[in-house]
Amino acid sequence: MQKLIQGIHQFQQENFRNLQGLYESLSHGQKPETLFITCSDSRIDPNLLTRSNPGELFILRNAGNIIPPHGAPAGGEVATIEYAVAALGVKEIIICGHSHCGAMQGLLNPEALASLPSVSSWLHHAEATKRIMKENYQHLEGEKLLTATVEENVLVQLENLRTLPSVASRLKKGDLLLHGWVYKIETGDVFAYDSLSGQFLTVAEKQYPKGGLKTFDNLLPPI
Q: What pLDDT, on a 0 to 100 scale, did the predictor assign at position 222?
């Protein structure tokens, strides 16, 4: 706790002072352009990863970067997305998985979750991921299997995202873009799903335009 308190003092004396004008303007409201959905894993820092300033990312985090589909019991995830899309008017949504994801490990090894019934129940929203892995990736094991699971889960959750009325409406208008990313903790690489090749490419290979993230990612193939 002492380390956190010292961090607050340092923030107030250094970081806040350097950005005081920005924080003062943000006190009047927010207008983020991107909803960033990622895992709760402590090894991921969305703002550090993207070098974003306060007010630029609207962030949603949970175990496994999971999005319950439309019709599932109402929860904080769907409410947060609806607010970001319908009230704040974000233009981009990124779902970002990551290497060594404990939630995906639990999905592959449900017996390890025997003492974590709430986690096990939560992962039912990734049941499609589990089935895809079982029926299509029997040739993989170990880290390769986990990596493939992380990638497939990002695509599954993007499909779940599309079922939400607030998202579907904006997609129909053509003023909302969806993106699937995977962050590799040990190298710092970020891989983006490319619908044309059907592969996760590094963001350098993906060649996002300088003006924004606009891509063909909304043309994701059905799962």
A: 37
* Distance (Å, whole) CA 163 – CA 177: 14
Domain positions in the chain are 31-219
Residue found by looking up tokens 């990638």 in the block? 151
- Confidence grade of residue 14 (pLDDT, cut at 50, 70, 90): confident
Distance CA(153)–CA(29), nearest Å, equals 34
Catalytic positions: 39, 41, 43, 98, 101
Thinking of the domain 31-219, which architecture would CATH place it in? 3-Layer(aba) Sandwich (3.40)
**What's the pTM?**
0.89
What sign does the CA torsion over 220, 104, 53, 206 have?
negative
CA angle 193, 210, 30 (to 5 degrees): 90
Question: Other C-beta atoms within 10 Å of 184: how many?
Answer: 15
Q: How crowded is residue 123: how many other Cβ atoms within 10 Å of its Cβ?
A: 22
